[in-house]
Amino acid sequence: MSTFTINIKWKGKVFEVPLDTSEPATTFKSQLFSLTGVPVEKQKIMVKGGMLKDDHDWSKLPLTNGMSWMMMGNAGEGLKAPEKRPIFVEDMADSELAKIAKIPNGFENYGNTCYLNSTLQCMRAIPELRASLSHTFSAPESSSDSRRNLALAVHKFYEQAGSTVESTGPFVLLQTLRMAFPQFAEREQSGGNYMQQDAEEAWAQIVSSIRDSTKVPEDTDQNFVDKYMSLELIHTMKAEEAPTEEPIIRHETMYKLGCHISVDTNFLQQAIKNSLTEKVEKMSESLQKQTTYTQTSEITRLPAYLTVHFIRFFWKPVERVRAKILRKVKFPTEGLDLTEFCSNELQEKMKPTKVWVLGREDEISRSKKSKKAKLSAENGPSADEEKSQFPTEAPVHETLKSDAGCNPSGLYDLQGVVTHLGRSSDSGHYVGWVRSAEEHEKWFKFDDDRVTPVTTEEIKKLDGGGDWHMAYILLYRRKDLNQLSPRKA
Asked: Which one, 191, 329, 348, 478, has least CB within 10 Å?
């Protein structure tokens, strides 16, 4: 092994480069690349007898220290610095992470205001509500009506929350709520802090204020709540001691289903069924005395958005506290079927649509499992559409079709949940859980300003039975007929 120093002349410069005869010529060229930037494959080095090759035999060259060789070739562009400095995940702010991960923003807690934050997050999952608020308050206004001001504050806050990925706080809305309904401004006797409030009471007052104040864009004579959130029921009351007495029939519009929980309640459907039958004490005209009536109720209209309230709190007079029923009550995240609780007339009207929905869902499920739902041609129909046994559009009864805010199938998917963690309504913590608008199986947990993605399996664990987060309000959304159409699936 011998080592020589070779003078390489290139573009008016001279480089002293060591040459080790035990190494191949490519090693020598690599040193030149590091000095000049000329890639190995572009180097043309003139030696005695021609150009230096990659596999040149050093023994066939007369090598001496200090000898000179000439090299030709242009330096490459080399590595350019990136135009934008790379940002690593661990260096990102929460707002940047939220934007990339498409995580909605959370709401700040101003001290025991989780009841309001969780309510607002679930209501924000109703796009028609936001559209109705924007339509109603399209122009600036001021009003002395506290309920209308509350609806306006909800609208402005949703606009504010939608304009940023940062956490934001409903401060003005909170003050407006407390002015309209002073019970939400109650303070603790010791310390003077604002007291924890009931999320269902906040939900009810906000819905009521929106009902009194808003109009839907396509129908200026109808408010949003009556169109999209109202149930209609028919109640039949019969006196137990007077079977010949004429039944008392009355109609009622409701904006939620209140579900009592008993020792026998294990499922949501049981709770609904039990709540539609109750005992009522009233004066009987035929008996001329107070007597017990059995009231049975049937649903005659189902809304696009159904609110279910688990009545978990009850008053304990000795302890003077609203205690909580911890019983586990399972609820479906997909396909809640309320047709059995509807009148016979409504069931008949919904039947064709319900059959279509269940059939299309079965087709789509089988198609996905067999991996056959692929495009047969660019912008062409899917394999699922070609084999569908159902019409492209769902069959909807004319009276239901004319009621754009109803549910024509009687079937629902869960859209949002308000949970309570704790043993009393006067304490504990409320959290909102909302289904992603983009991914059906993805959910978000809104713990005030902390927002995290969760799965459907985690939502199913909110059914109670312990000291974990427990479903208190459920928001269901009607099955989307357009999404189930063979043209969309």
From this structure: 191
